[in-house]
UniProtKB/TrEMBL annotation:
This is Polysaccharide biosynthesis/export family protein. GO terms for molecular function: polysaccharide transmembrane transporter activity. Residues 1-77 are annotated as: Disordered. Residues 115-188 form the Polysaccharide export protein N-terminal domain. Pfam families: Poly_export (PF02563), SLBB (PF10531). Residues 194-244 form the Soluble ligand binding domain. Residues 12-22, 31-40 have a biased composition (Low complexity). It comes from the Bacteria. Keywords: Signal. Transmembrane segments: none annotated. It comes from Geomesophilobacter sediminis. InterPro entries: Poly_export, Poly_export_N, Soluble_ligand-bd.
């Protein structure tokens, strides 16, 4: 048999592996090919593993089998803005409710809370009397600088004080002249609670307030808005120290029971402008 021919046949088809025969004594065992081991770097401590043993980072790097990524949130944002714009437009033409109604009218139980104490201001007429002493009984008008003048005491500031505060100060100053004075202080006439309403109202000018009054009530005192008034652009100007605060007011919203927080209580010297 030709050995070369045997080699060719072996190249064409590998013969089946014969079962290993036992080694006879004295024969050296055949050398086996060394096994190849792949070095896999250990995962860092604390790294999360998947069920197959791979780390989360490796799993994230693997190609995703999802057909396509979801649409980013930015792609859906214009639709939300479009809905918000449509709601605002529908409210402006009366086809939908106000999307931001603010404070709305709600029924309340019980009695309303009491009004704060009256604060004396320039122009108020005060009545001050001492029991059993007609010489110390006076009716005084608070001057524009907020002061009054009283016998035995001289000048003192009355503006910005309540009746109780002014009475306590007068009693302390009179104590060294009159014992058990029985002092009485009262506001005979309130002339300082004045607000000014100007612009497109039926009766512009100054209004004297005799009780706590809000913006809606003040506009009613001025005869209401005329047909040419811009009802949604009313403003209230209030002097606060050295600065002027401006409060917006929408007549139609408040009349419909919305944004009631803008219907603020008027204070001495407020100016309501109706463009």
């Amino acid at each position: 048999m030709n050995p070369a021919g045997s080699g060719k046949v072996g190249q064409a088809a590998a013969p089946a592996k014969a079962p290993a025969e036992p080694l006879e004594s004295g024969d050296a065992p055949a050398e086996e090919a060394p096994a190849i081991e792949l070095a896999v770097p250990p995962a860092p401590e604390g790294a999360a593993k998947t069920e197959t043993g791979a780390s989360v980072e490796d799993a994230a790097a693997a190609p995703s089998e999802v057909p396509g990524p979801a649409a980013p949130p930015e792609a859906r944002q214009p639709a939300a803005n479009g809905i918000s714009w449509w709601r605002s437009f529908a409210h402006s033409i009366g086809l939908a409710a106000d999307p931001a109604p603010g404070e709305v009218a709600q029924p309340t139980a019980g009695r309303p809370t009491g009004a704060p104490d009256y604060v004396i201001g320039p122009g108020d007429l005060l009545g001050i009397s001492v029991w059993r002493d007609e010489n110390l009984t006076r009716q005084l008008v608070v001057l524009p600088d907020g002061k009054i003048s009283f016998p035995l005491i001289g000048e003192l500031v009355a503006e910005g004080k309540t009746v109780a505060q002014l009475k306590k100060e007068l009693e302390g100053r009179l104590a060294k002249y009159v014992t058990d004075a029985g002092l009485t202080v009262e506001v005979k006439q309130s002339n300082s609670m004045i607000v000014y309403i100007i612009g497109r109202v039926n009766a512009p000018g100054k209004q004297v307030l005799f009780c706590n009054t809000n913006v809606l009530q003040g506009l009613a005192m001025a005869g209401g808005l005329n047909p040419f008034a811009e009802r949604g652009k009313v403003k209230i100007y209030r002097q606060q120290g050295e600065r002027t605060a401006v409060f917006p007011f929408n007549y139609d919203d408040v009349a419909d029971g919305r944004h009631l927080e803008t219907n603020i209580q008027l204070q001495r010297g407020d100016v309501i402008l109706v463009p």
